[in-house]
């Protein structure tokens, strides 16, 4: 009889019969048991609360039947944790650890052991969320404030953000600053910038309609486009290693009305004249060599510093100093109105996450070494480079650099070049190989020992007894290019140089921060799931950590194995035909996917298609990414039940039919709904000549259950830091690879240094500095998939949906649930509508979020996707006890709101408006509030056992935005003015 049923029903019943598995009968060695929170008995109890008999029935009421994926995932059976670590070691040994002196923005470095152990490998540092809840994020914000201060001091500029994705994308963002500030559209790129930076900036310029040209900016004959010049990009030290005073050129550009951006090196800046003293407007670069391994390309914290007049045009996050209600100085995110989640398509950029964890590592590196230690490291690198230069010159070859810091451009004849490269291979050394047969490059770093230096001398000269020739070799210390201003004179960089004091400082900051090691972080649309220790361990294996991103593939066979296996797994889970790993964040994935669509449309002669439809229920970066890709954003409304308004979409499609390029659907939507009409919507877009972008931010509700490539997607990005367990790190790192259908494969990203299998003539270009993005953290996702296996991955999606619906059922008697699907169920997240409560009581979503801190919890997502709402996403990693405690806290808070409504407590003096309650506030000798201290601090009995104390009282956001204090220098200035 089965064959008589409609095909969709057959698929659904087959799915229910064969593909839903229960993990709890698995071996106790199974990693799946460690990752998924609820036990079998808890699952049954939660299903009963939801009013369904099984996970099968839950899915039947949640996901549209027509999109259910009914086949088993074609993914290897799971490994135990011990097996996984053994396997990753085997793969790591396939990589060859040559000594890489390639440079180009990537250098060997030493990770100080106290930073490795106490920060990089510490879940208290790698599991927190972006510090939107300032009162429980003071520790990591102080570390990021140190990062901003470090960058501004070393570059001699006024303000810096709290990190960028990498050097190349920072340069692209800097170009955007120039265009927004000057309202002009020509941008010039000096030919001596790093090639990956040039390529990334050119791609961005093309997408935004900016006229960009690669030129020799030092030539008198270069056209400076006087009337149209927005700015220029220079590099100092440049890609060949030369250090030049840019002051005259900077003055010339300013006279032409343009701004000057310079990519620079922070370590070099400790001993060479900083670019800010050359009157540049913006400095960009990477902090990688400050204690962060190369990792085959990342993650590394880029930086962007600028003159103060440009602060409101800065992309990314800014940490500033404000005050709490007690008047205590505290840190907070500053000028958030610039960001994509608020300004959408009018934002300064589409950046959603950056590299906070790596920025913290870099800032601690500077704290650990201090000003003299940093200068000593730089001086040692420069001294060894100078010694190598004189030896090479003594062998009869020419050093082309007049002044240099750590990099030499060596002129050699073809015979010499061949001999050098042969000897380099014998010593397992990588050099920079320039096109042609005249030049080689070598870049030194802090890891270079005397033996390494001796080997390099032999590689270049073929002998050990060359008499150095110092003729023309100029030492920076004796030149006008030497830095004369002091560095890092703030107390934080001077006070913690013994390991004891440094360890205590890191610990002091650590305990001020709330992470997953404290309790759940149920952030809707952000998916703060378990970052298992076994997944994290391989990232510090030297077999993976010490690989330069531009080594030959023959030296990165292990990495290629990981990339190939991960690509095959993602293809199987998503239904796409090809994966690109270059985009190193979700927002960059959106940008890359949209550019691929634009290139495809251009290839078929549809250049007029420039409209992007974005539902109001889409992820926050979508409209900003649309703008960044050079598209015009048109919004689609939602229905009262949270679905995309199909009628409104049809009207917009009819209106823009000839110009429609793409529609971006977040699925399930940020309204927490699996829209029943998704296949119809995709068909409508395709029938109108457009492409469909499925935002994969919520893929954690689909793995094993639905595949976006099957139900209509042409391209998706996947937030590996969400669905696939890369930790959030307090605001990054992240990875956002994209999957595409066959027709878009030729337009995927390519790279100017490392060949990919994409046709460069049709490619969208380059979207980040490294060819495979932040490759090192792909190990985390690979490990997660390998240990979960096909059934475990599917079970994770099922439990994520169950946990959400369980919380919805527990809370719906107390709060209005804003959206639900056709059958009354939600996807993996649930929205609490606070608007009516706000009208009745004066209590808003922010007050509830702050009061949750008194219960020892992190708030859900606030005011998104609907203002005065709370969006809760519990994830599959949380067990029933944790969900119940969170629900109990919210239910108790509802009672506290009712006390205000019933006038038991005044509107301006109650536990919600005064939350959170810090220890100093509670211990004050005078207590004037109408409620007790016990009610404030311990609202439920179990809170006394599991209390996480907020470090300060509620932060004054308005004061922080009106009084910009973004560095230690600003803080000192503000203190002196107050006195």
Explain what the structure shows.
Helix 6 runs antiparallel to helix 13 (356-394). Mean pLDDT is 94; it is low at 1-25. Strand 13 and strand 14 form a beta hairpin. The protein is α/β, with parallel strands linked by helices and 979 residues long. Among the domains are: 556-783, Type I PLP-dependent aspartate aminotransferase-like (Major domain) (Aspartate Aminotransferase, domain 2, 3-Layer(aba) Sandwich), CATH 3.40.640.10; 834-912 and 917-952, Aspartate Aminotransferase, domain 1. The radius of gyration is 28 Å and the shape is globular. The strands form 5 sheets. Strands 2-8-7-6-5-3-4 form a 7-stranded mixed beta sheet, with helices on both faces.
Strand content: 5-15%
Distance between the termini: 87 Å
Largest sheet: 7 strands, mixed
Q: If you consult CATH, what is the topology of the domain at 556-783? A: Aspartate Aminotransferase, domain 2
Query: For the record, what CATH class of the domain at 556-783 applies?
Result: Alpha Beta
CATH superfamily of the domain at 556-783: Type I PLP-dependent aspartate aminotransferase-like (Major domain)
Mean pLDDT: 94
Strand order of the largest sheet: 2-8-7-6-5-3-4
> What is the total tally of β strands?
25
Which stretches are low in confidence, meaning pLDDT under 50 for 5 or more residues running?
A: 1-25
Category from helices, strands and their pairing: alpha/beta
CATH architectural designation of the domain at 556-783: 3-Layer(aba) Sandwich
What is the general shape?
A: globular
Radius of gyration from the alpha-carbon trace, in angstroms: 28 Å
Give the number of helices. 31
Roughly what percent helix?
A: 25-40%
- Assembly type of the chains comes to single chain
